Fold these 2 entries.
Entry 1:
Amino acid sequence: MLDWTMSTPLSGSEERTWAMVAHIGVLIAAWLAMGFLCPLIIWLVFRDRSDFVRRHAVESLNFQISLLIYSALAAVLIFITFGLGVLIVVPLVVIGAIAALVVIILATVAASGGNDYSYPLTIRFIR
């Protein structure tokens, strides 16, 4: 019989799967500007069961929080410049969105291979 208690360590395959979900799962929640929810839930559920999953979930969570902050700063820039900031912000947002997608895919590939990954330009809120 399988033991699904919170203290049961994860197998290597389960670790890689949940680490990958911590990264790629943000694409689903990102449509509602809540990309941080997926890694947050994975971190809360698996942080004591697997150090590997914890590291990936924390890395993804920090990246998503950083993206949220950068987006808020872009909105403030547009507001303070009475809309003129759009000329700067929109191209940066497009480039940033493409770059974010690329690094999320790279992190997912690293997790599937059992390797660690560090997102660029990430503020480390959670360790």
Note: The chain has a mean pLDDT of 89.
Entry 2:
Amino acid sequence: MKFLRDIRIKPFDFVVVVVLFLASFSVLAFLPSQKAGAMAQLRVHGKVVRDFDLNKNQIWTYRAKDGDYNKIEVRNGKIAVIKANCRDQIDVKQGFISKVGQTIVCLPHSLVIQVMSGHKNNEVDYNA
């Protein structure tokens, strides 16, 4: 208590600081948890090329007319680009994703894979 008197902090001030500190982290308890998706959508240049059911293990290769390719694997409810012929390989390095809203992007090929819930929501335009 001598320390508190020396810095002129009253005990009630200390209680207020602790309560505010704990309250700032209580918001985390109310955040929605990300749910695993049921499907993923592959878009190239903004156009839907294919939908993937994340419950079915599969390997599929997207091939463009100019020779670009991305090998896509769905395994155990997750999706990833496992091989591509782009220079940076960012899409391959990203690994498997499974939560709603997560995306894999290959900028050189203008390719986007996005995990979706699989449930139709009239308030959301998935093709935008």
Note: The chain has two domains: 1-31, 39-116.
